[in-house]
Structure formats: structure tokens, C-alpha cells
Amino acid sequence: MYYNFNDEDNNSMSDKTFLYGNPSWQPHFEKGIGPIYKAIVSALENDIKYGILKAGDQLPPQRELADFLGVNFTTITRAYKICEQKGLISAIVGKGTFVSVDANIESTTDDTEPYLIDLGRIHSLNNNRKYLSEAIVQVTQRMSVINYFAYDEPKRHISYQEVGSDWIKRFYFTVNPDDVFITSGTQNALAVILLSLFQPGDKIGTTRLTYTGFKSIASMTGIQLVAVDTDKDGLIPDMVERACQIDGIKGLYIMPECQNPTTCTLPAERRKAIAEIVRKYGLILIEDDTMSFLGNTDLPPVSSFAPENSLYINGTSKALSVGLRIAFLYAPSKFHEYIKQGIYNIDLTTSHFNAEIAATLLENGSADAIIKEKQMEAEYRNQIVDDILSGYQVYGNKRDYFRWLILPEQWTGAEFELCARSAGIQVFSAERFMVGNGPIPSAVRISTSAIEDVRELKAGLTILRQLLAASPKLPEFVI
Amino acid sequence: MYYNFNDEDNNSMSDKTFLYGNPSWQPHFEKGIGPIYKAIVSALENDIKYGILKAGDQLPPQRELADFLGVNFTTITRAYKICEQKGLISAIVGKGTFVSVDANIESTTDDTEPYLIDLGRIHSLNNNRKYLSEAIVQVTQRMSVINYFAYDEPKRHISYQEVGSDWIKRFYFTVNPDDVFITSGTQNALAVILLSLFQPGDKIGTTRLTYTGFKSIASMTGIQLVAVDTDKDGLIPDMVERACQIDGIKGLYIMPECQNPTTCTLPAERRKAIAEIVRKYGLILIEDDTMSFLGNTDLPPVSSFAPENSLYINGTSKALSVGLRIAFLYAPSKFHEYIKQGIYNIDLTTSHFNAEIAATLLENGSADAIIKEKQMEAEYRNQIVDDILSGYQVYGNKRDYFRWLILPEQWTGAEFELCARSAGIQVFSAERFMVGNGPIPSAVRISTSAIEDVRELKAGLTILRQLLAASPKLPEFVI
DNA sequence: ACATTTGTTGGTCTACATTTC
DNA sequence: CGAAATGTAGACCAACAAATG
């Protein structure tokens, strides 16, 4: 383009030429065709793709690479910045720039090969379908069933919004029915929120290990996630405040109960402290409380302490039935217009028939029975995990749908996932849940909720136990 | 920050000080607090919001404003650029920068006050619910109904994908069932496509007047729309090519049949020509063929001439029933992974129960009967419009769900919409459908498909006819 | 405590492309 | 046609800010 890359002539740089050695990484591209920063971006993308750069590798400092290429260092800044936005690398002032740990890792957890024992995905436990089936019969027998399909808004004796506020009230958060929206599930609610309340480039804080579905939707909408540090109780309030001050996060995503994947549950004081920070910095809190129905605690959600700044999601898929795809979303009035618009723009509306079934279940008390059974089944299954993996560090509340296993020294999560897979078992490693950079815990998530038959669970766990005692033996593979 | 704004001292500018007069618009902000370009952005936002800057107003040239503020002109470039991305203004090299026509106009068309005669929204005609009701009864009577809710993927004799490929085949496009996805309606399919195949900042070409739902989802995902010129037959192929060369569009959004809102239908040669360009430039074609069931033509869609580059959407909401929320999406194999991911990230999956009802309707022939009836009803209603508005320029095929009315000299679309509203009728003006800048046609869209009772249509049209002959008489209002 | 290393940000400069007159 | 007007894009520079030792 307009610049000649003539290293000798570049006097302003010549005194620094000796300051830097050869950069640890060098982008290969043809000079003179197209902009430099773009060339660097594609070189970086390629080298990560082909394994020349590996997760955690440190890139040369901007000034060093700039000197080597004979350009101003902010040109490198620009290139690095783009790569960072693509999630390939992450930079820390004073420290350096590093290849992201998940740069080359599939971050979804929705797919599993059918022949594997599925200790990977989190499902609703399908143990008893009696109530569901009754509700369906009840709904379909009503003369008005056609209305759920023919009309946009069928009339019913109490509104879905009231059903939703009643549902949310179960979890110690009292909201006005007018503030309740109905979405097609939790994931859908997250998509609506990110699309309607945030813009590409905005930053949202979240635990360093977070729900993969949230990572995906954030990456699709161009929203940057900022890792906030945690300890055994979950998010550390001071670290949230830090993220506000330093990173300028606009929102905060939390799962207060049974955080996915670490199973942390926020204690009461932290909930209040976080709400305090949310209010102080005017954050938009996105609280995903899908797991609260398990009843491990009776604490009010963070949203209840900062309702004006909060979006609170509580879905029925996990609690009642996968097929329902109904989640309730609380939003304060200042967000109503945006959320309405978002819901409309993504999918017009949720199926009224499904909403009616969910409403029926909730109104006639079947929901309570279903939840009770699921809680007991979860408890039973978790006990099996704790028994078979006794002696290992297994985290999780009594009734969670999954557990978090800290691996022995010799393993990394990714290695263990791979070996388990070869042994016929699907688990998901810490790597998949990582946000940004930082130390990756050696751990895997073990789901107890996807398999149909408890014998499968036992068989799978027994194999995992053997694996845990062994050493990583990776199959031969390139890259 | 780091710069002092001392106009006198700025020698490099002093010779130019006399070249420019006072800028036609001046941003008001406090110097020294925060970056200049951001201050300009908020000043601009505010002035548009409060009506100080009106749609179509020309902003001062970058150099002029820069001189006035005593900064480098590229700082203004930066501010303008951000505003352009926000959709507030649009700039043309050599010409200037202008406030967008839709900067302050609600671009949604989903809301209508209940007391108005709704000639605004486009609905499915709900004339006959017999078939739908039969299908629901049939589906619910099957013993396996619970499976639609309890399982993720109920077994059926032929797959929904095959149902989808059969449906698409009706519209002269033969596709492999493996390439068919099921989404929760057309709007949902568009959201999935934009989220999974495009990134914030990407550009997509579309007709200068386009579907508002597409505008909204593009704006939410940070995707820029580029207006492509049209004539009475719709998109002009040469203009599409121009958009490729000049704007570097990555995708192209089209409605080949009954383009919303202008009712244009692309003739055969244009379809081939556009497909040619799509292939030549490797564009991603997004073809929204929701209206083809009306059967105004029997032309194959553009996608059929460039299947490797095309995403073809054909929904059932308009054709069968609003409540179904099922659309079929064809995607070539190279996009499968992305689309799958996108569907999963937005909403997990579509309601199987609804899919089953749609499938039943399609398989047992009811769909044909429903469509036939809708076609006839549409024809009947359009005839009424053409009769009552005879003498005026009304565009539309025999069987469309809406018509496009060119207004007489004295009216602009926005004025007419406002006056019609005061007279109790909702119509949507050309302004709502505009992409970017350019001349705004004086026209409104008149929907024939939202009202229940034809008498309402007649009453509404009669009032509109009187209005057309009158002069704009705007109610007193500020801004 | 303070200098060093490293990344970030706001503003500027230069070449250039498109449109208008 | 060519000069003027106007917007665009890539690179550069200087001040700043966080982390490290």
C-alpha cells in the first residue's frame, strides 16, 4: 500500500534494533499486499489453527514484533486487538499477550456421540412422565385448544405472566406479573437479553469457568466476556468491583445456585455484596437461576436485592420437562421495551400450547410432585457418584444435576476428557468452560442427568475411576 | 486529556480558518472531559433525539467541523463513523454526511393500538380453522403425544426434514432432506443466519425498502445493511454487483416474491442474473420466500440457481397458521455446522408438537386446502382494495397479503401514516422500511391480512380514500 | 518505592477514492 | 475533463495505566 518496508532506512528504530532479539513468534506474510495488521491477524489465525501456536503460548510483545517487522507498535496493537475480539488471544497489561486456552477447543456441550455413555450433557431427568402426560391430555381436551395455534394471544383464566411470577416467587423473589416475560427456554432468554440490551463490543463479567451456552451466544453477538475470579463459594465480590473499575464491564452474568460447571452456590452475604456492587456501578445483572428448583438452599437470588438492575431467568426445562421450552424472565420496567423488541426480533412468540401445558402443571400442583421426584432422583444419583469416586475430590450439592471432579496431579482436563472418550464415556473438561486466560484447573464436569438408566451411570463411573488412577495415554494424533 | 484546545496557537490550521464558515451543526460539549470523538457522538445522538437534527439534514463536512473544533478532521471521521454504525447517519464520499431517514422512526411493525383498524401488520389469514383443528386432534390422539414433550427427538415415520424438503419442493426448489433445518418461524431463521454466519461489522445488501424484521435483527447483531437500488421489478442485478465491488457486501437478503413492502416479484432473468453475481462474488444469499405459497408465479427461487451459496427460508406461519411458528431452512453442507450451532445457541430446539402438527397438515393434504382458501381470500380482499382505491397507484400481485400505495404529490408517507392514525387506521409508511439514505418514496403499505372482518377493510379504505384527496393536516406536536 | 515492561487510548498524518461541478 | 469537495483507510505518535520485580 502506501508504505515501504525498508528496514535499513528506518532511523527512528535503529537504536532499538538491538534491544530485542528475534521474536518468539513471527507472522509470515507477503509484504506490500494489503494492510499489515490484517496480514498479522490471518497469520495468527492460521498458526493457531495449525497448532504452531498452542493454548497458553506467549506472543512477542507488541514493541518487539513491531521492531522486527519495521512498523509502529500500535499497528501490532491493532492486529492483536482484533484477534482478542475473535477470542483467539488475550492480553494483560504489564504481562504480555497469550494464546487463549479455548482457541482451538470446541466449546459446545450439546453434542455427544450416541454410542458414548453420556456423562457430559445436562438434561432434565425423565423419570416420571405421568404428570406431564396428564397435563397434556387436560390441555388438549379443552375445547379451545385450537386457539393456541390460531390466535396470537389466547385468553385464559390467569395470564402466563401471573403463572411466571408465581413460579419465580417459589425461589424467594417476589415480582410483579407485568414484569414477567415468557421465552422459549433459558438459552433463548439469554440470547434475547444479549441482543436487546447489549451491543457488539460491550463487556460482561462472569466466572472464569462459565456455562458454555453463554460463551457461545456472547461470541456470536460480539460481546466480550471478562473473567472474574472465584473461590469455593463462587464469585468474589471484590473481584466483581475490580472488573467494573478496570475492565468497565456493562453487565454481570451469574448462576447463584449450582454454578455451571463448578457447582458453587453463592452464600447469603455474597449475594447482598454483589447486589450492592451491581447497584453502585449500574451494572446489568443477568441471573440464571435454572438450578434453584433443586432446593439446595432457600436463599433469595441476587436480583431480589437489586431488582431495578436485574434480569432474572428461571426456566422450566430442567425442572419440569425438556420438551416444554418455557422460561420465565423477570425484567424491570426500564428494560421492557428492549426485551419486547428482542423477543419479537428473534422468534415472534413462544408456543402458547407449551406455555399452557407448563401453566397447567404449575397450577394443579403437578409441578411440585415432579420437582420432588427429580430432587430425590438427583440425590440418589449423586450418592452413586460420591460412592464410586470416593477418595477423589468431587464437588457438588446434595441435589445437583452434575458434579465437578478435580483430577489427580498427572491429568489435565482435556487429556482426561479425551481418554474417557476413548474408553466410551463423555465428560466435559474445564477447558470448555474457560473464559479468557488464566490457570486452567485440572477438572471435568460429570453429569448425572443425561443417562436414562442408572446402571449406565455406575458402569461409566467405574471406568472413570480406573482412568483416574492411571496415567494419560493419549491416542496418536496430529496437532 | 492530553490536548489543549487553543485555537490561536494552532498554526497549521490558521490558514484554513477562513475557508469555512460556521458549521451548520455544532456539537455542544464540555472540552477537556473525556475524549472528543465520544463527546461528538453523544451530542449528535442527543440532537437527533430532541429533533434539533432532522431526518435528511446534512451534517457539516468533517474538515469544516474539525476546523471549528480545532482538531484533526479524522477525529470527526471517527465520531461520524460510530454514529453511522449506530444507524443514525450515513455518509457518501464526495457528497456529505446526512442524518438517516429512520433515525427517529420506530422501525417495527409489530405493534398496533387495538382500537385502530389494522391495515398495518401482515398476518396469516385466519379464515378457516377446520383443518388445523382436525390436525391437532389427530396429533393429540396419538398415544405418543407425550413424546413431543418428554424427548428431544421423537421418532416419526418420516422425518421433519423430509417434510421440509417436500414443502420446499412445492416452490420449485429441490433439496436434499439432510440440508433442511427446522426453525421457529421465518424471523427466527433470519436471526439464526445472521448470528451464525455473520459477524458484527459485516455488510449485507438488500433492497432500499426492506422488511422491518430484517432491519431490526441486523441492527441488533451489529450488521450493516447496504441499500441496493431497485426498479419496478425489484433488485437490479447491476446494482447488486456494484454493492459487491464498492461496499464489499458479504451477503444479500432478498424476497423474490412479493417483496415486502413494495410487492415486487423478480422476473426469471433477474433471478438467474442475481444468482450469477452471488456465485461470482461468493456472496451468502439469504432468500426469504415466505410469500411464494400465494402462487403468483411459478418461478424457481434464486437459491435454486446458486444452491451452494444460498440459505433459503420458507415458513409456514403465513401459509398455514400463525400459531405454528415453523419455518424450513435450506442450507448447503458447508454451513451446516454453523447453523446447527446457531439454532442451539438461540433456542435449543423448536417445539416438536408444533412441528408434528405442521407435518400432519402437509402430509394429509390439508395444507393444500388451506393454502387454496387463503389464496382466494387474498384475491378477494385485494380486489376490494383495488376497487376502493381505483384511480390511485396501487401496486401488488393478484394474491398478495398487502399492497403498496403510492401517495399523491402533497403527501409524504410519514405524514399520511400519522393522519391515517388520527383517523383510526394503521398503515405503515415507506420511512419505516428504509435502509440508509436516499430519496424516500411517498408511499404506504396497506395490509389486507390482519383484519378479521372484511367490513373493517372496506371502512378503513374508504376513509383512506378521503384522506388521499385531502391535504396533510398534522396534529400539533412538538419535535 | 520506583523503574521497567507491556498493553491501551485518543488524536494526528498521509495517501487515496468517489462524487460533484 | 480536471479541479474541488468530501469521506475512507492505514499507519504513526504521545500520554497513560497496569503489572512486575
3D structure, described in words:
The structure is a homodimer of 479-residue chains. With 479 residues, chain A is of the alpha/beta class. Chain A starts with 10 loop residues before the first helix and ends in a 10-residue tail after the last helix. Chain A folds into three domains: 96 residues, Arc Repressor Mutant, subunit A; 119 residues, Aspartate Aminotransferase, domain 1 (Alpha-Beta Complex), CATH 3.90.1150.10; 237 residues, Aspartate Aminotransferase, domain 2. Chain A contains 16 helices and 18 strands. The N terminus of chain A is likely disordered. Chain A is 38% helix and 14% strand. A seven-stranded mixed β-sheet of chain A has the order 5-13-12-11-10-6-7, with helices on both faces. The interface between A and B is large, with 50 and 50 residues. Chain B binds a DNA duplex (21 and 21 nucleotides) through α2 and α4.
Please tell me what the overall shape of chain A is. Answer: globular
The major pleated sheet of chain A works out as: 7 strands, mixed
The chain pair with the largest interface is: A-B, 50 and 50 residues
User: Helix proportion of residues of chain A, in percent?
Assistant: 25-40%
Structural class of chain A: alpha/beta
CATH hierarchy: architecture of the largest domain in chain A: 3-Layer(aba) Sandwich
Report how far apart the termini of chain A are.
Answer: 35 Å
Number of strands of chain A: 18
How are the strands of the largest sheet of chain A arranged? 5-13-12-11-10-6-7
Question: Count of helices of chain A?
Answer: 16
